[in-house]
Amino acid sequence: MKCPPVLQRLLLDLADVDAAIAAAEHRNSEPSTDRHVKIQQRHYFEARSTAARARLALEDVERELQRARGELAFLERRQAHDEEAVHVAHETEVLRDLYHDLHSVERLLTNSRRRIRHLEEQVSAYQAQVANCDAAVKSTQRELDSAVAALDKYTADVASALPKMRAEREALVESLPSYVVDVYEEMREELGVGAGRLVGLNCGVCRMELSTGQLHAIHGAPADELVRCPECGGLLVRSDLMS
Fold this sequence. Notes:
Blueprint: H1 5-29, H2 32-88, H3 92-175, H4 178-191, E1 195-199, E2 202-203, H5 212-220, E3 227-228, E4 235-237
Parallel strand pairs: 1-4
Antiparallel strand pairs: 1-2, 3-4
Coiled coil: 51-157
Domain C4-type zinc ribbon: 203-233
Protein name: Chromosome partition protein Smc
């Protein structure tokens, strides 16, 4: 098939543009930036869920601490009442009951204060955990915002680049003979690549290594002969025609 060397070089440009278009369309169908957004969304929602659980745990402990302080206040009032009653009581039996109750109250007060200290420590720990979780939510929110911005930029870049590449392809197709384009499109449909360089011993379309006899026949063809790979049928442009 006749095709001047200068047009054979354009055929390689067409193959390069087609490869770039295919790559852009593939990335656009599920860009890595889109996957990154999904990952960051998962991290963000996990951080929010963790923060919500920590806040609920803090609220539970704070309510328990409030009840414990109420119980402590009640015991302190009970102790004060018993102590006042001791000063005015004269009957032995009454005094015995009051001292017994005071002893019980003191034991309960000790336990209550110990429990309050424990709950206060828990509150402090949960407050720190909530603060860390809130910081994690803000951090993952920033990461998510950044990922969304990157996806928006990528989408805009692809939307801008694809029309330019398609216009470049159209110009290249118009510069080539129709019979060359027909064979090229047929091979591209069949192989995924319509044309390629002869790189050393290998076909640039199917990547197979050609035999010495096959290479001799290819290099012996006239410069304006557009040769085809004897293995896959793809259009081959010889390296010596690239200068």
